[in-house]
Design a protein that fits this description.
Order of helices and strands: EEHEEEHHHHH
Number of helices: 6
Strand content: 15-25%
Structural class: alpha+beta
Helix content: 40-55%
Shape: elongated
Strand order of the largest sheet: 3-4-5
Number of strands: 5
Radius of gyration: 23 Å
Largest sheet: 3 strands, antiparallel
Length: 203
């Protein structure tokens, strides 16, 4: 890429490659040259993952067969954004990918928070905050709110934990929710997702 296309921005992570081209014509030429170069090395591009993507936004209003792609756990696609004057416009931006979000959801479920009635609520925070903060640090760099629905699963499991741990709250979801809200009011930074405003209502 440095020798043949020095003006084309290029990223690689492991075997994932991304090249930024200024036109469809240039993209096709870059793609053919990469295929040729890899063949010289005894390699080939993945036939299903390799594609030319049109980065559609407010300035690029055309259409193409592919208008999104995944890279490093993010999905890049056209999204509505708001400028500094509050006006909405279409921007080609990244947010957590559905595949990465599914992994987060499955990981939270694997913790079995609702079954850990031998722990107190501070123990649970210590056990899982580091992992949650890691997700927020990485996937929250762009379009942070896209990951909020998945982090809310933590609160759902905490609610079930309260109902299991305390006899007076068993089969009383509303009471359990209020109990969590009171704890959150007292210690608003106890859980990472509470710091993002994703906890039970504070009564």
């Amino acid at each position: 890429m440095e020798r043949t296309f020095p003006n084309v921005m290029f990223e690689r992570y492991a075997d994932d490659v991304l090249a930024h081209c200024s036109s469809l014509r240039q993209a096709k030429k870059v793609l053919e040259e990469i295929k040729t170069r890899l063949k010289e090395c005894g390699l080939e591009l993945h036939p299903e993952k390799t594609k030319i993507v049109y980065c559609k936004d407010a300035d690029r209003k055309g259409s193409h067969e592919h208008e999104s792609f995944d890279f490093l756990g993010y999905t890049f696609r056209p999204r509505l954004s708001k400028n500094k004057w509050g006006k909405m416009f279409v921007n080609f931006t990244p947010a957590i990918s559905p595949r990465a979000a599914k992994r987060i959801k499955e990981e939270i479920r694997s913790w079995k928070i609702h079954l850990r009635s031998d722990k107190d609520i501070a123990d649970l925070a210590r056990m899982f905050n580091k992992q949650v903060q890691g997700w927020v640090n990485y996937y929250g760099r762009y379009y942070k709110s896209a990951m909020y629905p998945y982090l809310r699963n933590i609160e759902r499991f905490l609610n079930r934990w309260v109902m299991r741990k305390y006899k007076r709250h068993r089969r009383h979801k509303r009471r359990a929710t209020k109990w969590l809200g009171r704890v959150r009011k007292r210690e608003p930074t106890l859980f990472v997702h509470w710091r993002l405003g994703l906890g039970s209502p504070v009564g």
